[in-house]
């Protein structure tokens, strides 16, 4: 059904370490810091599989930690920078920017999150980086609850909330692929609590996973029908109407139709 053509973002989790515990992140409550990192060998496997599908979307080197804490951050990124047909993005808290300046500046998009800054410090960072076109500086007041930021979610049930969406559709598994540090496919970047295992790049290529993985097909079918009865979807506050993934109404209808056709041919 060529679902692979619909993938806008492939996100990899380079490290399970972070140097902050932001209030809206599961690391502030239950999620542990672990000295676990994506190997360069796993990165090479992903790189080769991206080339096999002529991927032209975005590769996000972000994940669940602070990417620059990877002990070989420069070497890891260099793998994905070479002869690429995709764009690269990183989300970083900037604490190690000076150490990895050259590598960070090589990304097509840099999201610099100022989550421990005063407004004055935030503006000073804008002045510092405004000359670099690839940089976007985000700011969140330290005391702002996650519910007050439209783009934030409860991380698929990691935080309790009464703000579950009325519309139960979800476009995330249609548009994004999340690959953990060890090459495991995870259902969703929002799933910090259950960490559903969908397969592995070492057993199923990215192309095979997107088009042939039975578990992924099952989730797509349910979510296309507005059925969030599966874990972790049942506890997730992600709202498709927030347009977080840039999925228009017409695009969503097209994805629903593709899913219906896929299941008719099953």
Topology, element by element:
Blueprint: E1 9-12, H1 40-52, E2 58-61, H2 73-81, E3 87-92, H3 101-104, E4 109-114, H4 119-129, E5 135-139, H5 172-175, E6 176-179, E7 184-186, E8 197-200, H6 206-212, H7 214-224, H8 249-264
Helix pairs in contact: 1-2, 7-8
Overall description:
The chain is α/β, with parallel strands linked by helices and 266 residues long. The protein contains eight helices and eight strands, in the order E-H-E-H-E-H-E-H-E-H-E-E-E-H-H-H. The chain has helices at 40-52, 73-81, 101-104, 119-129, 172-175, 206-212, 214-224, 249-264, and strands spanning 9-12, 58-61, 87-92, 109-114, 135-139, 176-179, 184-186, 197-200. Strands 5-4-3-2-1-6-7-8 form an eight-stranded mixed beta sheet. It is globular. The model has no long low-confidence stretch (mean pLDDT 95).
Give the beta-strand count. 8
Can you tell me the residue ranges where pLDDT is under 50 for at least 5 consecutive residues?
A: none
Global mean pLDDT: 95
Q: What level of helicity do the residues show? A: 25-40%
Strand content: 5-15%
Overall geometry comes to globular
Largest sheet: 8 strands, mixed
Q: Briefly note the structural class of the backbone.
A: alpha/beta
Number of helices: 8
């Amino acid at each position: 059904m060529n679902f692979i053509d619909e993938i806008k973002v492939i996100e990899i989790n380079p490290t399970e370490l972070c140097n902050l515990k932001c209030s809206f992140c599961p690391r502030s409550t239950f999620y542990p810091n672990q000295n676990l990192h994506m190997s360069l060998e796993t990165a090479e496997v992903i790189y080769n599989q991206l080339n096999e599908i002529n991927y032209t979307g975005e590769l996000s080197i972000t994940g669940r930690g602070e990417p620059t804490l990877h002990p070989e951050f420069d070497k890891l990124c260099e793998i994905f920078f070479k002869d690429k047909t995709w764009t690269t993005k990183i989300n970083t808290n900037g604490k190690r920017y000076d150490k990895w300046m050259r590598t960070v500046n090589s990304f097509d998009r840099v999201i610099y999150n100022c989550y421990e800054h005063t407004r004055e410090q935030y503006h000073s960072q804008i002045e510092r980086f405004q000359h670099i076109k690839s940089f976007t500086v985000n700011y969140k007041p330290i005391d702002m609850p996650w519910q007050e930021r439209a783009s934030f979610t409860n991380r698929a049930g990691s935080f309790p909330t009464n703000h579950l969406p009325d519309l139960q559709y979800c476009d995330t598994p249609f548009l994004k692929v999340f690959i953990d540090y060890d090459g495991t496919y995870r259902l969703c970047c929002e799933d910090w609590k259950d960490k559903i295992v969908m397969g592995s790049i070492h057993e199923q290529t990215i192309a095979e996973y997107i088009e042939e993985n039975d578990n992924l097909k099952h989730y797509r079918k349910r979510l296309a029908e507005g059925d969030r009865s599966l874990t972790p979807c049942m506890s997730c506050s992600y709202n498709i109407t927030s347009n977080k993934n840039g999925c228009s109404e017409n695009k969503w209808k097209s994805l629903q139709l593709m899913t219906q056709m896929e299941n008719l041919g099953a």
